[in-house]
Amino acid sequence: MHPAPDCALDETSYRFDGDGLLLFVRVTPRSAKDMVDGRVADAEGRTRLLVRVRAVPEDGKANAAVVALVAKTCGLPKSAVAVVAGLTQRQKTLRLAVSRDRLADILGRLGIGPDRTEAAIGEDA
């Protein structure tokens, strides 16, 4: 994995379909803190959102931590976020049950849109 250039995530990082937003992420378990930490390019050159969680990757603990972190960051209930692909892999696809009119807000909260802050998203203050 290589750090992606410092630019907005391209549309290969997410896709809106009729059921919500599909978000393509790379997860780093056993991290020092839970945080959405920018972007990373995969082997095929696609940009993914980098998500770090303290949880260990066993018995679904890391997946649950990813769901909780993304939900909190996006201001959604945990029930609105699901891992739909990559349950046992670092590269995952998340489905966020949001309407198209919330898309800009959600992308901004994830640091993808124009409302991105310089601080890491999800980091405890």
Automatic annotation (TrEMBL):
Signal peptide start-end: none
Entry-linked InterPro entries: DUF167, YggU-like_sf
Superkingdom of source: Bacteria
Pfam families with a match to the protein in the record: DUF167
NCBIfam families xref list: DUF167 family protein
Family statement drawn from the similarity comment of this UniProt entry: Belongs to the UPF0235 family.
Protein name in the entry: UPF0235 protein J1C47_05125
Organism: Jiella sonneratiae
